[in-house]
Amino acid sequence: MTNALLSALPTAILVPLPVAVPLVVCAILLATAHLLPGRLPDILATLTALTVGILCALIASRAGDGAVTYWFGGWEPRDGVALGIGFSVDAASGWIGAFIGLLYALAFVFAWGFFGRTHGHFHILMLLFLAAMIGFCFTRDLFNLFVWFEVMSVAAFALTAYHLEESALAGALNFTVINSLAGFLMLGGIGLLYARAETLDFAGIAAAVANAGRDPVVAGGFCLVAAALMIKAAAVPFQFWLADAHAVAPSPVSVIFSGAMVSLGVFGLAKLTAVVFAGSAQVQDALPTLLTGLGALSAVLGGWMALLQRHLKRLLAFSTISHAGIMLTGIGALSAGGTGGALVYVVGHGMVKGGLFMIAGILLATRASIDEIALRGLGRGIGPAGAAMAVAGLLLAGLPVGLLDQGSRLLHGALEGTHPYAFVANLTGAALTGAAVLRATGRIFLGLGEDPGDEAGAPSEEEREKADRPLWLMLGPCCILLLLDVIVPPAWVEALAPDAINAFAHGTLTGGMEEGPLWAAWCPVGAAIALAAYALFRHKLPRAIVRPVRATQSLPARGLEALHSGLIGDYVAWLAVGLALIAGALALA
Amino acid sequence: MTWLPYAVAAWLLAAGLYGLASSRNLIHLVGCLSVCQSATYALLLGLGYRWGSIAPIFYDHPPGTPAVDPVMQALVLTDIVVGATLTALLLVLTVQIFKRTGTLDPEQLKPMRRRGDPAGADAPRSAEHPSR
């Protein structure tokens, strides 16, 4: 019955719905929230997110090896001139949209009763955020992309500062300033590209870019747009805002930030480089050095910083920087395997990192702390959360099972021969972030590690989140995410990936989709376990071993900490450096 | 085609970035962000401008009269809306920050500062050396 009904629906009608539905629900909630009884906004928002996920999955499965295109208001291109704004959904974009819908639904379940009486404002902002993300994935118009980028940013700014506490406000301010700058840069870049192409449609710009040859206007446009997307994707040296924002945002919001928003920067960059800038030799020459270089740097630096943190959410935020860097290296490989691996990685990483932020939220709610040292041994009463965190830590390190591993294997295969340093950086990043999570698990849930005594002060202001929520309600969504990451059949992804990547990149990416060797998957897992064990049992080792390690660590570690100063002025200076780096890479190509 | 609007845009962006990097007052910081944004206005309007043509309103001109590019003007209009939203949001954050901390100096508020540690230098203390 439902099947017959679904197949009767023409696909073209479905395409705008995943964006329109949350926006309509958003408006209805805004108008009626003060009248609605208690938990109705929760239910409505969860159902809406689920609907979006199902619609996206439906479109993705209909797209097959092509793309479903929809022109708003029937403004179809005539004689090759596209005046209207269109959505174009290929299988890869559609499935990522479906994943985002699911992540939101689970985040809403996790946030059940989180905010007490909010008049639905949280749900309204989250639904707006959801609509913007789906629009960002689906659009085929550069200016439309910018609009969704900005809507996404504004919703995110407001959600970060939702609690209106001192650290939340400062984090939100840094986030807002840097990401607004990203928006301005993007708009400037779009203006330059429009000046050359006289259209904003991806296909039209791609044709103009291919004809332009070595053109400073195109290069400038790419530089600005790429910088904006890399700020979103938190690549070094644009990464500073992320740790501040993710650490202070409410947990359900952090789930979305790390699980979807940061990855969408990578996704946008992958789409634009493959679809719009495929014809520019200059851009294509600059990309491998630029993306694998900055990606590798992010992977290692993020992993190292994660290992130095004791604020659990900040630790997870740095691990997101590291993993976003790993995705960037995949795009830098400029091959079907690299981009395909990065897109699979986006979904797998979103599931694992979303689950981890939910566990951090559980600790905040039930143990009223987020400090790893202060929480030492306090997790004993909530064993299942500890088990989930350990599994997530192992998955993050690259345990060869599930979607995240499939993505990283594809990345390894694409990078191993061509970019060996990026390959090593990927393994290092996975090992360091996995070690950081495993160490925190051991300390919090097993009470391992040194007893810090009285000095275990909290690193920031008193933090806690609403406590009177049942544990299963918070743990359930987390386990579903981790389970999904593990049970998605690899054969299905394998069968889907080649056609999906071909459609995603409009056939501009070549190369097979080879998987990396098995040892490359096990290596970081072993290293992560060894590193975590060293951190936890260091006090039992002879001083002769510990002292030199500590001595070589402390100076660079302190330097890194000092770089992440939390000062907005420093961040802006680094942003200018990053912009200069991209421009330099383009000039040398 | 003249280089002047592009030079102005580059100058505004550079001046705005310098202001952001060196700002010691949050309201000044919001103003600097607006200066950066003005760079995009100048750039976009410069790109869309055609010498000797009319505004893209054909009420009292025959269709086909050379006009400046309306797409660019639409982009600038959207940009202004975005700018207004951002400025409002940032000023709200600034007001809330001032209410809670009594200062507008970004150096005084670091997101992860330890309580009762005004220097904030040791902010997110390393988990590696808890006992230090």
Automatic annotation (TrEMBL), chain A:
Residues 140-403 form the NADH:quinone oxidoreductase/Mrp antiporter transmembrane domain. It is found in: Cell membrane; Membrane. InterPro entries: CPA3_Na-H_Antiporter_D, NADH_UbQ_OxRdtase, ND/Mrp_TM. Its main location: membrane. The keyword Membrane applies. The chain crosses the membrane at residues 12-36, 43-72, 92-115, 122-139, 145-164, 176-197, 217-243, 255-278, 290-308, 315-336, 342-365, 377-399, 419-438, 471-492, 519-537, 568-588. Keywords: Cell membrane, Membrane, Transmembrane, Transmembrane helix. It comes from the Bacteria. Pfam families: Proton_antipo_M. It is a multi-pass membrane protein. Belongs to the CPA3 antiporters (TC 2.A.63) subunit D family. This is Multicomponent Na+:H+ antiporter subunit D. The lineage of its organism: Bacteria, Pseudomonadati, Pseudomonadota, Alphaproteobacteria, Hyphomicrobiales.
Automatic annotation (TrEMBL), chain B:
It is a multi-pass membrane protein. Residues 108-132 are annotated as: Disordered. This is Multicomponent Na+:H+ antiporter subunit C. It holds the Pfam family Oxidored_q2. The keyword Transmembrane helix applies. Residues 108-117 have a biased composition (Basic and acidic residues). It is found in: Cell membrane. It comes from the Bacteria. It comes from Methylobacterium persicinum. InterPro entries: CPA3_antiporter_subunitC, NUOK/Mnh_C1-like. Keywords: Cell membrane, Membrane, Transmembrane, Transmembrane helix. Belongs to the CPA3 antiporters (TC 2.A.63) subunit C family. The chain crosses the membrane at residues 6-27, 39-59, 71-93.
